[in-house]
Amino acid sequence: MSSRPFCTGCLMTLTLLFSVGCGSSDQPQNAPEQVSVDLGGGVDLGDAGAMEMEAAPSEPKTQKPVRRFQPVTLGGNQSASGSSADGAPEEQKFDNVLEALKPLQIMLGEWGGTTFKKFDGFSSVETLDWVWDLQSNPAQPALVMQADKSRYYENARLTYLADKQKYRLTVTDKDGQKKVYEGEFSVPLTKIPGDDDPNVLHSTYKLSLALVEPADEKKHAQIIFNQQNNDRYMFELYDLRGDSYARVDTINTRRKGTSFAKSDSDYGSKTCIISGGLGTSQVSYQGKSYYVCCSGCRKAFEANPEKWIAKYEANKKKTDTQ
């Protein structure tokens, strides 16, 4: 009698049918689940939710280390540590910019100017007022100007870019358009004896600034501050014609009111507590008086007197030990 090979697939089918078909007659019979078996080895479980499968024991989970992120401040140039965008502490950056602007603070005060160019047959007369701005940007002090009835500009802001080692002048013209100039000294700062009193030293220099925004503008493409002495400077305007600049007007300005015609060593007790320039008015704190050179320094002092007194005392102590 020949033996027939055992059919594994048939046995699996019979086993499944038997297990599904058997049950107690006392309980209602449910329709058997349809389960098909792939004899080739692949199993289709149909509705997997009808069968309970024993899950393999899971390995113990290893807790991943927590990643911590530093807070990010958007839209500002100051980090949580009090440093500016270039990495320098704000206090140090402030001191560097202030030091670079000190040669120009001879322009502080009120000035009367007349244009060389004639308008309807007459020179234009205007008043310019320069003060310190130490509050708009704590790391970027500036000299700011307001003009009354100017033919050219309503206001200006002059500061120093330490990363570029250039001065930046931002002006708003009479039509409300903003223009940005950058440059450096074309004639360096020099102290010369005064004509009336050789013991009084006067500041002279030329600061040449070229238009950078808008870049394609040719009208008033260059501005030069030509400081003649402590009480007179010329504001020169140039158009770009071809590859060279042509002067189109000069505003001849003379100081009004208090004279700044003193050398630095003459300031004495009247030294401005903030800028180091010549103090023209006094401020007080806790019964003690100090000098400031302009309304901008007065506002900064009144906003935070302890800060400026501490800086002044530290600088004074440093100077005394040198």
Automatic annotation (TrEMBL):
Residues 25-47 are annotated as: Disordered. Residues 266-305 form the TRASH domain. One of its GO terms (molecular function) is oxidoreductase activity. The keyword Signal applies. Residues 1-25 form the signal peptide. It comes from the Bacteria. Keywords: Signal. This is YHS domain-containing protein. It comes from Gimesia benthica.
